[in-house]
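Before going further, learn to read the protein records used in this course. The integers have meaning only within a learned vocabulary of local backbone shapes. To see the layout at work, look at the sequence and tokens printed below.
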Amino acid sequence: MHKIALLAAAFTVSATAAMAAPRTDEPIQPIEPAKVKDAGLVELGKKLYFDPRLSKSGFISCNSCHNLSMGGTDNLKTSIGHNWNKGPINAPTVLNSSLNLAQFWDGRALTLQDQAGGPIANPGEMASTHTLAISVLQSIPAYVAEYKKVFGTDKVSIDGVTKAIAAFEETLVTPNSRFDKWLKGDNKALTKQELAGYELFKDSGCTACHNGAAAGGNTFQKMGVVEPYKSTSTAEGRVAVTKEEADRFYFKVPTLRNVEMTYPYFHDGEAETMSEAVDTMGRIQLGRKFSAEENASIVAFLKTLTGDQPSFMLPILPPSNEKTPQPEPFN
């Protein structure tokens, strides 16, 4: 019995050593799981998110540019729109986008619902119109029935459609990363290199912009503080919204959550790797040249920010019929 007691005590000490009090004073906080308030609204939004019939071509859906199998983005410098149109800017991830202070790189949409309607009617993206998209949905009895269950009316509207898509997108959070486990007290969640990378990340000033639960997304900052950022992109940043010259080249700080999955990086997608992105940010934002070892440590830390990816059954979309407007993929 004495040996059993000693073993039990040793196990308790070992378990206690592996766990510490939650680290609540860090500049980055854990992401919490999504709380679904209206399951019916979310389910409708999930269908609409994956439905390419909201586009003129019948080929492009929200998931085309914000692929939930690829970190909520498309891993392209700029997205491909209607008729193979080259997009003007890198598609930001939809994962954890509910934590952003605004949507799009320039913040022109304040909410996810505001953002959801934009690509549908953008001629370079989904190239439809709100009127046409609604007529498609209105022609499909199964959609009308589901819409009525959610909203209490059988008259489909763009407001309801964007509200449903936003509700689904609000569920696309990625908790339980190794870094979150460390924040919650798991001393074994990170390696020495990863911890060293995080300390360097903080000491270098990176958390001045990349902070909060999303490790970014909550401020607009100038791209090129210490030295100008050279780019062939025509994107101007916040000035396009505010018309204030002082906001030129100010962009929403991107989230670093799941950053190993959301390459290439920056608004123009010019940084192909995390190492390149870390090197560029150190130079133009901080005036610092990281050594190869320092760069590798920061990259190692950044990889610990990958959380649980959204997991669900793919929706089965209701079929079109003879009343449904036909897609125009080549016009």
